[in-house]
TrEMBL record:
SUPFAM superfamilies reported for this sequence: MFS general substrate transporter (SSF103473)
Keyword Chloroplast attached: no
Subcellular location as annotated: Cell membrane
Membrane-crossing segments per the record: 21-42, 48-72, 84-105, 111-129, 150-172, 184-203, 239-260, 280-299, 306-323, 394-419, 431-450, 470-488
Name of the protein this chain belongs to: Major facilitator superfamily (MFS) profile domain-containing protein
Membrane topology, record value: Multi-pass membrane protein
Gene3D superfamilies: MFS general substrate transporter like domains
Native species: Flavobacterium ginsengisoli
InterPro entries linked: MFS_dom, MFS_sugar_transport-like, MFS_trans_sf, Sugar_transporter_CS
Keyword Transmembrane: yes
Protein keywords: Cell membrane, Membrane, Transmembrane, Transmembrane helix, Transport
Amino acid sequence: MSKTSTKGIWKVISASSMGTMIEWYDFYIFGSLAVVISTKFFPSDNPTAAFLSTLATFAAGFVVRPFGALFFGRLGDIIGRKYTFMATLLLMGGSTFLIGCIPSYETIGFLAPLLVLILRLLQGLALGGEYGGAATYVAEHAPPGEKGYWTSWIQTTATVGLFISLMVILATKSALSAENFDLWGWRVPFWVSIAMVGVSYLIRKNMDESPVFAKAKKEGTTSTNPLKESFGNRYNLKFVLLALFGATMGQGVVWYTGQFYAMSFMKTVMNVDSSQVDELLGIALLIGTPFFIVFGWLSDKVGRKYIMMFGMLLAILSYRSIYTAMYNTTDISQKTEIVENPRETTEKKADGSSVTISQKKYTDGTTMIEKKTYMDKKDVQTNISIQITSSDKWALIFLVFIQVLFVTMVYGPIAAFLVEMFPTKIRYTSMSLPYHVGNGIFGGLLPAISTYFVSHAKTAGKTDYYLDGLWYPIIIAGICFVIGMIYIDNKNKITHL
């Protein structure tokens, strides 16, 4: 490839990736702050129900992503890739900024969660149209035989967006006191988005249309009804269904297990301090992100199928062992408490409630802070925060990194895999739907479903209750692995159908 063409595609990669990364940042800032948001926009008398409601609202954004894929995918195949994902960028940025402006539940009551839900749905619609456009745009600029490598740069944007969201949260927390962050500082990451979106919009505004689409439009071979041609044509519909059930469904659950469920698990099941979780997850993501490029490049050499299927298989076989090891790092029952000089303070509030904070230290350096809020002599809320040691932090970083490695195997090649499955005139629409059903519904529902399974198992008294949430990704990925191995060959062709 010539220096000129290399320079040209790097410009495309930079412009596309920056905008897509910002959209992922916008989308995931909600999930990164789920624990805090549950106390702001939902009733505080039942913390577990409030957190599950927050996860459900988070998941709602994923559920509508397929509708965004249909709406914006159709526009992208009719009017072009460039203008469509400029519109999705503005819709996403505006929704994110406004979430940061909504008054709390205490101020406006049930109107607060309703407004959050509406804006979350708009975020989902926007993201449904963004990814397909960016992946298609980059792939249509890439030279033959290198689509896996060049589109893998787009694949890094989801993880980089999550990483930046964690870093912005950590920076905001470090700049403010704990009280100010809880009072209003948590809104800052939402507000930051609007400046990032403005810069990205200016960059995208100066981009040219995809040469492949521009050529098709000039020759008059673009589709006039992409939805009908994508899903009304039985031959193409087979590819759409196979892309979903043989690839993106499993990829989606592996992606969300390795990043979002790992974060939720450490914060809510293991009770690790929120800032420590953000820090260690950020490090694991930083170390793991380059492997998106590695496996995207490798898929150009050996094919997409076996890399993605092997990633799913490794995840299926190792998740329970990984999460058992994670849980054991903070299992207080396996640690020795230092009983000398226990610390406990009680504070009475004007509303008649009282808060008791007790601190326990353990011989390995672990510290547990337990906060109990009493109202009318009844324990209404218990919050536990565990400060882990440096060795435990690096152990968790390694265990999360392994999961991120699985993510890079299934996600690195997926954009090129999907782009190559469909013809130019219906590519945006055809690839967007299976991607966003697989990721938005099967993947996006994972945190809420898995957290519910863990809560139910804990209530039932199971000793290994913390592992029950893994059955969902293991089963979904297992089904996808079988279908993908049987019905997809290594050149993205359907077999036996």
